[in-house]
Write a structure and sequence with these properties.
The complex is a heterodimer. Chain A is of the alpha+beta class. Chain A is built from 9 helices and 5 strands. Chain B has 2 domains: 4-176, GAF domain (Beta-Lactamase), CATH 3.30.450; 183-236, Arc Repressor Mutant, subunit A. Chain B has helices at 4-17, 25-36, 60-72, 76-83, 101-109, 142-164, 173-176, 183-196, 200-213, 218-226; strands at residues 40-47, 50-57, 87-89, 114-122, 125-134. Chain B has a 5-stranded antiparallel β-sheet, sandwiched between helices. The chains are: A alpha+beta, B alpha+beta. The interface between A and B is large, with 34 and 37 residues.
Amino acid sequence: MPTEVLLAKALVELADTLVADFDVVELLTRLADRCVEILDVGAAGLMLAGPDGELRVMASSSEAMRVLELFELQAEEGPCLDAYRTGKAVTAYDLAADGGSWPRFSAEALAAGFGAVQALPMRLRGTVIGALNLFHVAVGEMRASDVQSAQALADIATIAILQHRASLEAQVLNQQLQHALNSRIVIEQAKGMVAERSGLNMQMAFSALRGYARKHNLRLVAVAEAVIDGSLASSALAPAPAPGRLPGRLPN
Amino acid sequence: MPAEGERRARILGLLVGAGDGAFGARRLCDVCAEVTTMSGAGIMLMSAEIPDGSLCTTNDMSDLIEQLQYALGEGPCVDAYKQGWPVLEPDLAHAENPRWPAFAAAAVEAGVAAVFAFPLQVGAVRLGALSLCRESRGPLSDDQHAYALVMADVAAQAILVLQADAPPGKLAARLGAGADFHYVVHQASGMVAAQLEVSVAQALVRLRAYAFGNGRPLAEVARDVVDRTLRFDAASGQRDPMP
C-alpha cells in the first residue's frame, strides 16, 4: 500500500481509540507500531513527561532489552530529552559522527545496530508533553514526507492525550461541584427534620446542628447525614441559646 | 455570519468586559441572552438526570421554565442533558411531537411560545443545560443557534473554572450569588419526612405530587410547610393533603 494510504489508515485508527475506553498506553503503542510499518524505521518509541518533568518510556515498537534501555537512558541524555526541552525536532543522521552531545546514548544506539536517530516533539501550541523517537538502521537523511507523516502521527496523539487530561480534570471539578451542592442539600434537609422534631425555626435548627458538630468535632455535613438517616436523634442536638429569646416550641 | 472564533471572542469579551472582570453566574445568563438576542435565558445544573437547581435566569419567563422543570422533572433542559444534544421546540403550543405534557401546558399558559435547550458539557462530562425562551414562536436563526452552541461551551467551562477556586465542599460564591438551589424545598422535605416518618426522598415526591395535584408552584408549597401553615400528617387536625 502507498504511504499516504497507510498514513490515512493509521490516523483513522488512532482517532478510533479516542472513544469511550481511552487508554494512553494503548494509543501510544499503536502509534509506535504504525511508525515502524509506515515509515520504514528500525524501531520507534514514545516518551512522555511525568508530573515531575522527567521523561518516561510509554511505548516501544520493540520489546528487546537493548531498545528499551535506549529509551530509559534518555531520562538523562539523548534526542528525546532535547526535543522535549526545546520543543523542536532533533536529528542525528549519522550517530557515529553527530552523536557527540549524547556520548552514552550514542554508544548504546550504535551497539544496538542503529546508525541514525530522530526525535519529534509531542507539542500542541506552547505545551510539550513528550517526544516520538525513531531509530534507523542505515545512516542517512530521512525523506521530508516521512518526517511530516511522523509529526502528523505525533500531533494526533498529543491532541488525544491533552483532551483526555482536560476531560479527567473536568470530571474531578464536576464531582467537586456536585459534592458542594449535595452537602448543602443534606444540611437543608436536616434543618427541616430538626425544626419539625424539636419545634425550632430554621435558624435555630441550623445552630443546633452546627453546635453539635463543633462540640463533637464533626463535619457539619456528617452530622446532617446522621440526622437524615436516623442514626442521630434530633433530641440529641442541644438547641443553641439564641440571644434575647428562649429557644422553645414555636406555635404551629 | 461570523466564524466560531469570532463568536467566542465576542462572548468572552462581554463576560469579562463589564466591571472588574470577575464575572459570576448571573453575567453568564445576561451575556447568553444578549448574544442570542433572546429575552429569556437560564442555566440549570443537573446530576443523574435530575435538576439540582438554577444558576441564573434573566427574567420571569426563564425563571418559570427552570422552576417547572425542577418541580416536574421533565422539560427541554432535562432532555438536552440526558441526550447530550440540543432540544428545540419552536412552537410549544402546537408541537409536532408533543413532549412534556405537564411542562408544556404550564409553560404555554404562562405565555412561553418557544423554548430551546443546549447541553452544558466539557468532553464526556455533563453539567446541565442552557435554556432560551421567548413569547413568540418560530425557530432560532442559524446565527442564534451558533451563538447558543458556543455560549453553552463557554458556560460549561466557566462553571468548572469558577468552582475550582471554591473551598472544598462549598459552592463557589460567584456561582451561588443569584442561584436558586431550592433550599426551602429541601427544608420542607426534611419536615415532611419527620411528619410522615418517611425518607427525605419520599417526602420530596409527596411535596411534588401535592404541588402538581393542586396546581401550585412547588416553591410556594414548600414555603407553606416551612412556615407551618401546611402539614402532611393527619394529626395536625388539618385535612390530609394526600388522602
